[in-house]
Amino acid sequence: MLFILKFNTNWENDRGSDDKTSVKELEKLSPKKGVINQPVEDILQKGLAVHLHLLLLLMEKRHLLLLIFALFHTFPSAHVAKGKVVLNFVEAESIAEIFGGERQKGRIYFTDKSFAVSQSFIGVNYGQVADNLPPPSVTAALLQSTTISKLRLYGVDPAVIQSFAGTNISLVIGVANADVASLASDPAAAASWVSANVFPYVGASSISIVSVGNEALDSGDSSLASNLLPAMQNLLYALSASTAASAVKVSTVHSMTVLSQSDPPSSGAFRPEFVDTLKGILSFLRDSGAPFMINPYPYFAYASDPRPETLAFCLFQSNPGRVDGGSKLAYTNMFDAQVDAVRSAINALGFPEVEIVVAETGWPYKGDPDEVGASVDNAKAFVGNLVAHLRSLTGTPLMPGRSVDTYLFSLYDEGLKPGPTSERSFGLYRADQTMNYDAGLAKSVSTSNAAASPPQSNATSDPTLQSPTAPPVGMTTGLTQPVGWCGPGATLQSAAEGGSLQPAVQCFSAVGSRVAIRLGHLFSCVALTLLMLTQ
């Protein structure tokens, strides 16, 4: 989708042919003056981030008419004339400053990709099987310097959870496999677990998912598999006792070995012995709105088929591609093929509405002599190109135009893990917070510099936007950057002065400024509209 804002004050809407909304329908949305002419509340500190998140959610869900409707209420001069939404120049400039965009030939272009790097689909796993990890507060500061917006824990660590309070980084916390049986058999035990591990933190820290067990189905423990769904059900019921925690989802993580077939992707199917259990789990996930969590690893696919053409396919590098004989869809990388195999397996059981989350994926930068493919260059290429692929919003052949939430494995090396060297060499960072390799995750890096990155937005680079302007004296907030300041280190940018889109640059506007106040109007209207629509 593409929105064009002309600087001769015209806003044009160039939607795809599937959108039948006429200008007359838009005219009906134009409000009477004074319906909503004040913000519900001023935007202060974290409120700005909350409203930006709501905007990105609306864009991600394609609620574009709702966004246009809100614009009418927000900008007093907005009206429809001759098939265009007309604004005056100052308001057009405000939209550019709020949303970012690419200015060319007197217009500002807004595409879904303009928002890609700020969307919250890149996470990381925080394994702690090590004796040299930095304090949680240091880790929280490290992640805030990156574009990573999600963190997955394998258990519950109060110090870690508390360190991420107020960071806008969402957390997945885990139930150990050893605890699943007791939570399944006793609702009171589930209530006690939630009271101890969720309720104390959910107000300040953003806990999004409780993951029950890890790769439980293929653990070899049949009782663990049979207890999985009852434990999930008891935990969800326990969470409902708190309004603040009722939005927390409950799921479980699976390895790719739950599939009996994955090649070609359209033939994806679950192992027969797991089908009944997975039907119950998928029904639970559908009814509760939780995702199906899976651990695809192209690295292991290459290790089992170490040919040069397989390596290029796994690293998102130039390759002939593979055509799925069943769906006739073309695949250019192993990650998409693995995710779509899971999609096919879920669809085959009748649950196409259940979303997929990639709970783990990564590539070791070091291995034993017999561990083919484990190298710094390959790890950098895989992770960097995966991040670029996610940011491109290309999606997979079966799920085009959107990116699945993906948790990279892992944040740090885990030096106490048993097994081959590769098991201890998946870390993006060393314990001293230096990078094992640069995968393009730092906020000051707009794109991955790994080999053969997927094509990004065609906006050209404007070097003048890479030098930050000093913020006004004393102007700071609880956000990670000073307000009223533009520079490397964030994810949206102002193009009002004619600059090209730089995905890793953001402008924060001073509280009380014209832009901040208008942003308050806009999202107050959006929030009220959403409330009305849900009544």
Automatic annotation (TrEMBL):
It catalyses: Hydrolysis of (1->3)-beta-D-glucosidic linkages in (1->3)-beta-D-glucans. Keywords: Glycosidase, Hydrolase, Signal. It holds the Pfam family Glyco_hydro_17. Its EC number is 3.2.1.39. It comes from the Eukaryota. It is an enzyme of class 3 (hydrolase). Residues 446-461 have a biased composition (Low complexity). One of its GO terms (molecular function) is glucan endo-1,3-beta-D-glucosidase activity. Residues 446-478 are annotated as: Disordered. InterPro entries: GH, Glyco_hydro_17, Glyco_hydro_17_plant. One of its GO terms (biological process) is carbohydrate metabolic process. Belongs to the glycosyl hydrolase 17 family. This is glucan endo-1,3-beta-D-glucosidase. It comes from Zingiber officinale. The lineage of its organism: Eukaryota, Viridiplantae, Streptophyta, Embryophyta, Tracheophyta.
